[in-house]
């Protein structure tokens, strides 16, 4: 029997390691390959032969790895050149894979990783190389086309929505409350920020306004809306995606500031901080707080979605099955079946179709005022945060296991 | 029988509502008072007769309230004048308490709340008013004297340490990693930042350096330490308290910057952002991230400490017992018994002794280099984060219940 290899690429998520374990478990059951190798730090590491044998690791460590956030095999941001322009790396990679008797290569990642998967598969087909390349989706941004959603997104959404609930309560305790701004990730798409809609108390969303990159940000209208709402209820809770743009198509967060000490120019603060500044300047209230969730939202395994973890495991498992069926240059995608109760099925899509596209938050799910989402968004997000993982503990903290350190 | 009242004051925590429920449960068991009233928004609300009957609320809502972060009765930052200078508010408050047939007043809070408790108790004694005033400790800062630790701190420490683990992993996935700076609260004391020491992988702390207000911050030494560590291991993880000060005793975070657009002067970013700037300026690496946990650390009930929740409940329960014994002008404090296994007992301390003091992080628990803590700190922190609460859910998110909205 031959071997296979799996590697991770791009930004980490809470559930990317679960996909690796899905593949390992798939091989344990199907006995398709002798060994499951792990490439450390993606393509970059494989090119340096940083390769470990995942199938020899004991079950206890694999279980901890399954519930560990971050890319536990290490990651890279490495873009392969077109093989027509430069085939050197392709040749070297194929040579290494052959050296390890590898006939299937699995890449867990987003857009760029699907580009790599497509290119390698294409190169192998042209050159009659008998290696299969399958992509496994992963990104908190939820911006891959064809798939209903991406593994990693549900857990990020769960941390965001939980934090929205908790910070809303925290920022509402005084008689004179202020304005709270929560900034989420999402440079190009608004999925993460939009998910905040499902944070509700007494069935009413706690967020007053949600701003997404898919809707032009009008500063004047924003200040008008916030002022009106503040006058009405004495507090305003705002969720904003880091990637909102003005009518010139420029990122609202692209503002610089000059510190008055030795540093000269320095870019400080993101869009949340900017909105805070303009609210203060406008004189609506002096009580304005901005909080950037930053990388917490993509690594908060302690608040992950059980369904997300399961689906991440499943796409890893199925990638192995599809490879056995001789598929190559494809990505495993998730389909949401059209029934009232959430149920997912899985299918394959061409990796190169995923690579060169972005799935935006549907504009028809944004309200007319451009400051909130419609009920379709609620139905879309709700099932994705279901379930809570039970983590192994050590000294009362989660016991995490990675292989790249 | 007469009635009692409980109110909350100062900054919220994850477990302050648990203390209120402890008192309600104490009264259910001991049947000491007819009604347990809740004063909304602390003294400020009581002076406006914003008072609700907590003993009439059904068990289901009380249970949700018990596991809800933030001050669910609302809060205030209201400092009573000395009664000798102005007794008007005292008279009005006593009149309202008498109107509601209240003979015991419980105040959950930190330094300022204990000041209020002491002043009111003193005023009642002098004027022969038969009302008891008991303080219940609460603050994430852990800076109250006499008590081993404060309810609220353990849960904040648990969120901080969990986030340190998770963000450490997230920021270590590449071949070329950078420097990560996590900023915690703690304007005057370093307890919160110091707790990060217990975040370990393979029994080694993941934080390389921890900086506290109790140790003078030397910028030059800092940059030297960070550079050396970065050269050695290609990544550095730093935890810093917002309140660190330089040798002039000035907050390191007191730096202003001038934005280049319409705003003029604006204070942006805290100390984490400042450290990021000086590392960049020093040229150690261009990969530097700073993350401010902000209010997340005091409201993350989804990651609370079970022990903290229990102890918060206990001090509420005992406050009622002590009031029955005729005590007044005291605060319930926690004692850690000197045995290897953690066990707490409880005692009373004069509220005015707590009011005018700050418990600093012991300087003997800081290493000689002023950039980490000693093993005594590990032993102190570890038991405080034990246990995980099981939260009631609604639509897969925690079901929270407050009474101030």
Strand order in space, largest sheet of chain A: 3-2-1-4-5-14-15
Total discrete domains of chain A = 2
Quick one: which chains have the greatest interface?
Answer: A-B, 72 and 70 residues
Question: Which sequence of SSEs, written as H and E, runs from N to C of chain A?
Answer: EHEHEHHEHEHEHEEEHEEEHEHHEEHHEE
Indicate the low-confidence ranges of chain A by residue numbers. 257-268
For the terminal residues of chain A, how far apart are their CA atoms? 30 Å
Tell me the structural class of chain A: alpha/beta
Largest sheet of chain A: 7 strands, mixed
* Rg on CA atoms of chain A, Å: 23 Å
What descriptors fit this protein?
homodimer; 405 residues; alpha/beta; Rossmann fold; 17 strands; EC 2.7.1.90 (chains A, B); ATP_PFK (chains A, B)
Question: Could you characterize the architecture of this molecule?
Answer:
Two copies of one chain form a homodimer. Chain A folds into two domains: 3-140 and 303-357 and 389-398, Rossmann fold; 153-299, Rossmann fold. Chain A has a seven-stranded mixed β-sheet with strand order 3-2-1-4-5-14-15, sandwiched between helices. In chain A, strands 9-10-6-13 form a four-stranded parallel β-sheet, sandwiched between helices. Chain A has 405 residues and is α/β, with parallel strands linked by helices. Chain A has 13 helices and 17 strands. Chain A has helices spanning 16-30, 42-47, 59-66, 88-99, 111-126, 153-170, 191-194, 219-233, 271-282, 296-299, 306-324, 351-355, 375-381, and strands spanning 3-8, 36-39, 51-53, 102-109, 132-137, 179-184, 200-201, 204-205, 209-211, 236-241, 257-259, 265-266, 288-292, 330-336, 344-350, 393-394, 397-398. In chain A, 35% of the residues lie in helices and 18% in strands. Residues 257-268 of chain A have low confidence and may be disordered. Chain A is elongated and about 70 Å long. The interface between A and B is large, with 72 and 70 residues. Strand 11 of chain A pairs antiparallel with strand 11 (257-259) of chain B, so a sheet runs across the interface. Chains A, B: The record marks 112 as: Important for catalytic activity and substrate specificity. Chains A, B: It catalyses: beta-D-fructose 6-phosphate + diphosphate = beta-D-fructose 1,6-bisphosphate + phosphate + H(+). Chains A, B: Mg(2+) binds at residue 111. Chains A, B: Its main location: cytoplasm.
């Amino acid at each position: 029997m031959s071997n296979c290899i799996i590697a991770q690429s791009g930004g980490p998520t809470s559930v990317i390691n679960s996909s690796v374990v899905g593949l390992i478990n798939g091989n344990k059951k199907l006995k398709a390959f002798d060994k499951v190798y792990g490439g450390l730090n993606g393509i970059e590491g494989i090119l340096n032969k940083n390769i470990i044998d995942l199938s020899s690791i004991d079950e206890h460590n694999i279980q901890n790895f399954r519930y560990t956030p971050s890319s536990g095999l290490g990651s890279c941001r490495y873009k392969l050149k077109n093989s027509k322009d430069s085939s050197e790396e392709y040749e070297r990679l194929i040579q290494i894979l052959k050296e390890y008797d590898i006939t299937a290569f699995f890449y867990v990642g987003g857009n760029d990783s699907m580009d790599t998967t497509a290119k390698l598969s294409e190169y192998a087909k042209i050159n009659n190389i008998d290696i299969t390349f399958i992509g496994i989706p992963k990104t908190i941004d939820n911006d891959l086309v064809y798939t209903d959603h991406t593994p990693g997104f549900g857990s990020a959404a769960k941390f965001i929505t939980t934090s929205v609930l908790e910070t809303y309560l925290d920022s509402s305790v005084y008689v004179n409350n202020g304005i709270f701004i929560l900034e989420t990730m999402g440079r190009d798409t608004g999925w993460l920020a939009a998910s905040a809609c499902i944070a509700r108390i007494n069935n009413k969303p706690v967020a007053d306004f949600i701003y997404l990159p898919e809707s032009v940000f009008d500063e004047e209208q924003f200040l008008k809306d916030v002022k009106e709402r503040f006058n009405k209820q004495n507090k305003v809770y705002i969720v904003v995606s880091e990637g909102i743009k003005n009518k010139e198509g420029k990122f609202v967060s692209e503002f610089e500031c000059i510190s008055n000490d030795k540093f000269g120019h320095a870019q400080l603060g993101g869009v949340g901080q900017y909105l805070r500044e303009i609210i203060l300047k406008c004189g609506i209230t002096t009580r304005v707080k901005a909080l950037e969730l930053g990388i917490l939202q993509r690594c908060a395994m302690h608040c992950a979605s059980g369904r997300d973890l399961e689906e991440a495991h499943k796409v890893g498992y199925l990638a192995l099955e599809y490879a056995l069926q001789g598929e190559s240059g494809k990505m495993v995608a998730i389909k949401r079946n059209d029934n009232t109760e959430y149920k997912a099925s899985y299918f394959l899509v061409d990796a190169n179709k995923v690579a060169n596209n972005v799935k935006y938050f549907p504009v028809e799910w944004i309200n007319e005022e451009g400051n909130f989402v419609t009920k379709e968004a609620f139905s879309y997000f709700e099932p994705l945060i279901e379930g809570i993982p039970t983590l192994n503990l050590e000294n009362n903290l989660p016991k995490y296991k990675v292989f790249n350190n």
